[in-house]
Amino acid sequence: MPIVTIQQFPRDLAQKRELARRVTQAFVEVYDLKPESVQVFFNEIDGEGWAKGGVMGCDRSPG
């Protein structure tokens, strides 16, 4: 039973539904699995939960 974990910034529910559908379909096609055996977990991180180059995301300027 594959478990896929996706770490990302918060996204719209409709986008997550579509991504989960596509990821699941890829496992079904490539591994010949039943869709019910594929689990997708979304781990959404906001600006206080990550840093890049030693600077917290919430402290970074856009661009």
Provide an overview of this structure:
With 63 residues, the chain is an alpha+beta fold. Helix content is 30%, strand content 25%. It has 1 helix and 4 strands. The strands form 2 sheets. The chain has a two-stranded parallel ribbon. A hairpin with a 2-residue loop joins strand 3 and strand 4. The mean pLDDT is 95.
The value of Rg in angstroms is: 15 Å
Query: Termini, distance in Å?
Result: 40 Å
- Content-based structural category: alpha+beta
The number of strands is 4
The number of helical runs is 1
Mean of all residue-level pLDDT scores: 95
Strand order of the largest sheet: 1-2
- Tertiary shape: elongated
The succession of helices and strands, N to C, reads EHEEE
Helical fraction: 25-40%
Strand content: 25-35%
Main beta sheet: 2 strands, parallel
Low-confidence regions? none
Keywords: Isomerase
Domain 4-oxalocrotonate tautomerase-like: 2-56
InterPro entries: 4-OT-like_dom, Tautomerase/MIF_sf
Protein name: 4-oxalocrotonate tautomerase family protein
Quick recap:
This protein is an alpha+beta fold.
Write the layout of secondary structure elements.
Layout: E1 3-8, H1 13-31, E2 39-44, E3 51-52, E4 55-56
Parallel strand pairs: 1-2
Antiparallel strand pairs: 3-4
